[in-house]
Amino acid sequence: MTNGWDATPYVELSRAQWGELRKNTPLTLTEEELEDLRGIDDPIDLAEVTDIYLPLTRLLNLHFTGARQRSAALNTFLGARPRPTPYILGIAGSVAVGKSTTARLLHTLLARWPEHPRVDLVTTDSFLYPNEVLTARDIMHRKGFPESYDRRALVRFVADVKAGLPEVNAPVYSHLEYDIVPGATQAVRRPDILIVEGLNVLQPAPPTALAINDYFDFSIYVDAKTEHIRDWYVDRFHKLRRTAFEDPKSYFRYLAELSDEEATAFARNVWRDINERNLVENIAPTRGRAGLVLYKGADHSIRRARLRRI
User: Fold this and answer.
1) Would you call 121 helix, strand, or coil by DSSP?
2) Are 202 and 215 contacting, i.e. CB atoms less than 8 angstroms apart?
3) Which of 19, 34, 153, 213 is the most buried if burial means most Cβ atoms within 10 Å?
4) C-alpha 185, offset from chain centre
5) Is the dihedral of CA 198, 188, 251, 262 positive or negative?
6) In 33-95, which ranges are E strands?
7) What is the pLDDT of residues 264-302, one digit of tens each?
8) Which residues contact 290 (CB under 8 A, 6 or more apart)?
9) Given phi > 0 = left and psi -120 to 50 = alpha, else beta, which region is 207?
């Protein structure tokens, strides 16, 4: 430290310190609405929304306003016709860490700003290669790893949204069928804010190419200790066995027949051989690229935050 200035590009905030930054941001979510947004294994409550997500929406509102002002200044300099540029927010993190709940919550909360912006949410699962392609390339066992995504299509999609094209279409992924839905698309029509959620959204690009995070205005990484995420993954697996896996259309229908002991062993093996390996090799190394890291404790609640200030 020199003259009171800490050289680190981050500011570390406890949950209490972060919560104080809410200021007067109102809570616009009911318990019933939160129940619909909550993940199958995520015990988030309104206290978490108030302490963590309201300060976050305040930060994003300020950041969104600043991005709009910078865009207007650039258009003035170029003598170009003013045209708002979509604000793109990336959300990254491991399987089972709760990033999907974070994305859904922000999708709802941001749309309720006084400005009533149009907010869309797209997950990178939509850009996984179809199972037949993964099988042909012998990488079905690496689904979720960087090479299992059509990264060119994903970057092109985000670039087209950022460029303000009237309509950009994303494929649709079915978690029930564990595959891309043939012919189905999700239309994104000039949103004010686009949330892109996925495992590898902060992955760097190959040399001379652009990555999707090059188009992000802000990014969030949801983090926790690996052993905690493993336990959440196993717990979620058991809950899915009693719910979604029992659907006759489920790709994983056969897993519903396992005993509890067999299911635990299966889930732990999948975690160790696939999800933890992907986390250690590909996902966690991108954490430092995020503008904000939210750290969870063993009970799934966010305990502290690290905000990039430089």
Assistant:
1) strand
2) no
3) 213
4) 20
5) positive
6) 87-93
7) 999 999 999 999 999 999 999 999 999 999 999 999 999
8) 90, 92, 202, 219, 220, 221, 308
9) beta
